[in-house]
Amino acid sequence: MSVIPGQMSTRSVCVYCASSRMSHPAYRQAAYQLGEVLAKQGIAILYGGGAVGSMGALADGALAHGGRVVGILPRFMADLELGHRGLSELKLVEDMRTRKHLMLTGAEAVIALPGGCGTLEELFEALTLKRLGLYLGPIVLVNTRGYFGPLQALLEHAVTERF
């Protein structure tokens, strides 16, 4: 994974990703590499605050390379000890809605890594807000192992059907 110097002018990104430990290792590797690249570019990461799966790999990759990583975690998840302990900053919030709001409004761009329903729900909210003109930043999908191909086909079908 590479980013051409000067290609990104953002100072912070919101990254949507998964906490699953059972997904293919390539997804965690891509998350780690993304964290590394963003850290080396001096771009801070806002993410869900998790310690495992792609979430943990993203944070580990950035932190290992001197990056700033801000986790935003609902209190009930912190009570279950699901939060990453090595973050630059951990913000505890009351609920998932607040978490999503702070992640999106605190960053200048969105990057979505492959993930399950939670990741897709966050992505669709960002896409909807962009469509409505309420979010103006870029939204980038990291298409590891062709994961987002079926979603792209579905969205193209929606456009064809005039939705």
From TrEMBL:
<dbReference type="InterPro" id="IPR005269">
    <property type="entry name" value="LOG"/>
</dbReference>
<protein>
    <recommendedName>
        <fullName>Cytokinin riboside 5'-monophosphate phosphoribohydrolase</fullName>
    </recommendedName>
</protein>
<dbReference type="GO" id="GO:0005829">
    <property type="term" value="C:cytosol"/>
</dbReference>
<dbReference type="Pfam" id="PF03641">
    <property type="entry name" value="Lysine_decarbox"/>
</dbReference>
<dbReference type="GO" id="GO:0016799">
    <property type="term" value="F:hydrolase activity, hydrolyzing N-glycosyl compounds"/>
</dbReference>
<dbReference type="GO" id="GO:0009691">
    <property type="term" value="P:cytokinin biosynthetic process"/>
</dbReference>
<dbReference type="InterPro" id="IPR031100">
    <property type="entry name" value="LOG_fam"/>
</dbReference>
